[in-house]
Design brief:
The protein folds into 6 domains: 5-104, Rossmann fold (3-Layer(aba) Sandwich), CATH 3.40.50; 108-131 and 206-332, ATP-grasp fold, B domain (D-amino Acid Aminotransferase, Chain A, domain 1); 133-202, 2-Layer Sandwich (Dna Ligase, domain 1), CATH 3.30.1490.20; 333-439, D-amino Acid Aminotransferase, Chain A, domain 1 (2-Layer Sandwich), CATH 3.30.470.20; 452-555, Glycoprotein, Type 4 Pilin; 564-631, OB fold (Dihydrolipoamide Acetyltransferase, E2P) (Beta Barrel). Helices cover 25% and strands 33% of the residues. The protein is built from 16 helices and 40 strands. The strands form 9 sheets. A 9-stranded antiparallel β-sheet has the order 27-26-25-24-32-31-30-29-28. It is globular, with a radius of gyration of 26 Å. The model is unreliable at 551-560 (pLDDT under 50).
């Protein structure tokens, strides 16, 4: 199974991650890119880069013919799928093998066997792995599903058998919710994965999500490398991951590890994989699913074991035995990872787009990323930008270092969830190691609006750019604008007047992306980036964007009037729920917009009649495009 040149069928941070290890081991590397990724970091790190199609993932990173053609043109004799995209697509793995290439992953049969949650549960249960009570039958009629739900009892989870990421997943707590949940989950699963098959499971209330990293080779050896706790989730998508889990005893760790190995043995697993479990408060665990690929959160396992899991993947794919036996696996210390996303936590976690104006990762922690200054963050792919991984001798040391690293991360040009992540890491439940999957259910995101101090700092820096003092002008007057507000500010040598108060804030100097200011007699140096009249600045762990705007522009900054619905981000209209001339109630769904693998319902801002609907289903729209206009004089429902 020897190979010399690896085509990395992915993009972003994972493509960079794979390229670095492959080159260290002496392999040639080939990157692939869509039109949206021309010049991206992963194309620069590889020995060769091949264009595979337009920006749309379906025509590039999800196109099996395009990827195989890239392998042929580049002379690659092996393919690493990374994670996401086609990494768990059995047809892709089969096509790679049939093309005479080495697939760096499990056999297509193993991917297919574990790709259906329904069949995977039946398979592992037959080998003694604990599963939640539920229904995994082939009869998918609505009446049969309703009847089985009655047998299982509430609360329960309706799950898509294929796929993941929260798609086709619906909790049901009330009998009246059951039929709508089944219909909606099946429709969403069909649209997302091409398969509307469902399973039903008894729901656990606020469990932990604990997964076991397993590895197998072509010589019949399968071991585990310990667990990761992925309980901190938002909408069933992981936010924070750590290893080891603060909930596991050595005995429970050994028991769960053995169950994960047993699950992998049912498909003669080869390569890296993860077996995911739910863990209740009494220490009982239940199989959820098996991911037949490298996980996003694999760095925390690497941090505590000292192993390179991509190196293990390459060695196993080349036919070598596993480097370690089970009793040789060691772990030390603690590691925590957070995912830095291009999303605005203060606005319902809306995905964000824009150019990367400045990117300075923090020192002292591991940062996996695929960012370069000047590149655009587009709506075509997942909004994850980077992963920050901190380790320490203790869990508290790792947590403390990660909070500090987030505060020192500089990413300007696109709004991120940086402050939200730090806020999560500081919650008492997480600090004390008590986090469950319900931690973020009622989580209140901190206010992202700039307070008076931030407004004063921005005014002082912007006035400094104008050089107002050089003209002998005693006062510089600015109109500050930000997303959702505006304010008048007057800057004098004595301070800044804003919001009816005068604050002792002044600019000392600005150089090399850093501004030094005094605030109440204390001196602070903070990262700043200018983009035309806009100023990006970091203050106390948050990033703010304020603009020196003329009145006409500032007055319009907040967007549409109450009778208008604008696109909050670039995306595709995937559903129209109303038509022109239809009366609607305030809060009624008008349409669904999709971008960055997220679907957003847009609702009527007021009761009225749909006077204008200038978009159609399937249409791509830019940010702030007019999607609907209401006649507020009409009769709302």
């Amino acid at each position: 199974m020897s190979f010399r040149r690896i085509l990395i069928a992915n993009r972003g941070e994972i493509a960079c991650r794979i390229a670095r290890t492959a080159k260290r081991l002496g392999y040639g590397t080939v990157a692939v890119y869509s039109d949206a990724d021309a010049g991206a970091l992963h194309t620069r790190l590889a020995d060769q880069a091949v264009r595979i199609g337009p920006a749309a993932a379906a025509q590039s990173y999800l196109s099996i013919p395009a990827l195989l053609d890239a392998a042929r043109r580049s002379g690659a004799d092996a393919v690493h799928p990374g994670y996401g995209f086609l990494s768990e697509n059995a047809d892709f793995a089969q096509a790679v093998v049939e093309a005479g290439l080495v697939f760096i992953g499990p056999a297509p049969s193993a991917i297919r066997a574990m790709g259906s949650k329904r069949l995977a549960k039946e398979r592992v249960a037959a080998h003694g792995v604990p599963v939640l009570p539920g229904y995994t039958g082939a009869d998918q009629s609505l009446d049969r599903l309703v009847g089985e739900a009655g047998r299982i009892g509430l609360p329960l989870m309706v799950k898509a058998s294929a796929g993941g990421g929260g798609k086709g997943l619906r909790p049901v707590r009330d009998p009246a919710e059951l039929r709508p949940a089944l219909e909606r989950a099946a429709a969403e699963a069909l649209a997302s994965f091409g398969d509307g098959e469902l399973i039903l499971e008894r729901a656990l209330l606020d469990p932990r999500h604990v997964e076991i990293q397993i590895f197998g080779d072509r010589h019949g050896n399968i071991i585990h490398l310990g667990e990761r706790d992925c309980s901190v989730q938002r909408r069933h998508q992981k936010v924070v991951e750590e290893a080891p889990s603060p909930a596991l005893t050595p005995e429970l760790r050994a028991e769960m590890g053995a169950a994960a190995v047993a699950a992998a043995c049912t498909v003669d697993y080869v390569g890296a994989g993860t077996v995911e479990f739910l863990l209740d408060g009494d220490g009982r665990f239940y199989f959820m699913e098996m991911n037949t690929r490298l996980q996003v959160e694999h760095p925390v396992t690497e941090a505590i074991t000292g192993l390179d899991l991509v190196e293990w993947q390459l060695r196993v794919a080349a036919g070598e035995p596993l480097p370690l036996a089970q009793d040789q696996v060691r772990s030390c210390g603690h590691a925590i990872e957070v995912r830095l996303y291009a999303e605005d936590a203060g606005r319902g976690f809306l995905p964000q787009t824009g150019p990367v104006l400045a990117w300075v990762p923090p020192d002292g922690v591991r940062v996996d990323h695929g960012l370069v200054e000047g590149q655009p963050v587009t709506p075509h792919y997942d909004p994850m930008l980077a992963k920050l991984i901190a380790s320490g001798a203790t869990r508290e040391e790792a947590r403390r270092r990660l909070v500090r690293a987030l505060g020192e991360t500089r990413l300007h040009g696109v709004v991120t969830n940086r402050a939200f992540l730090a806020q999560v890491l500081e919650t008492p439940a997480f600090v004390e190691g008590r986090a469950t999957t319900g931690l973020l259910n009622d989580f209140v995101v901190g206010d992202a609006a700039p307070d008076l101090v931030v407004q004063a700092i921005a005014a002082a820096i912007l006035a400094g750019k104008l050089g107002w003092w050089s003209h002998g002008t005693p006062t510089a007057r600015l109109r500050l604008a930000w997303d959702g507000g505006e304010a008048l500010a007057a800057v004098t040598p004595e301070g800044v007047a804003v919001g009816g108060e005068t604050l002792a804030v002044s600019l000392v100097g600005e150089c090399g992306g850093q501004a030094t200011v005094t605030v109440d007699g204390g001196t602070h140096t903070l990262p700043v980036t200018r983009d035309g009249n806009a100023l990006w600045l970091d203050w106390q762990g948050r990033t703010y964007v304020l603009e020196d705007a003329p009145l006409s522009k500032a007055a319009k900054r907040d967007g549409a009037a109450a009778d208008t619905v604008l696109s909050p981000m670039p995306g595709t209209v995937v559903e129209l729920a109303v038509e022109a001339g239809q009366a609607v109630a305030k809060g009624q769904k008008l349409m669904v917009l999709e971008a960055m693998k997220m679907q957003l319902e847009l609702k009527a801002p007021a009761a009225g009649v749909v006077a204008e609907l200038p978009v159609r289903q399937g249409q791509q729209v830019p940010a702030r495009a007019l999607l609907a206009r209401l006649d507020l004089g009409g009769e709302g429902l």
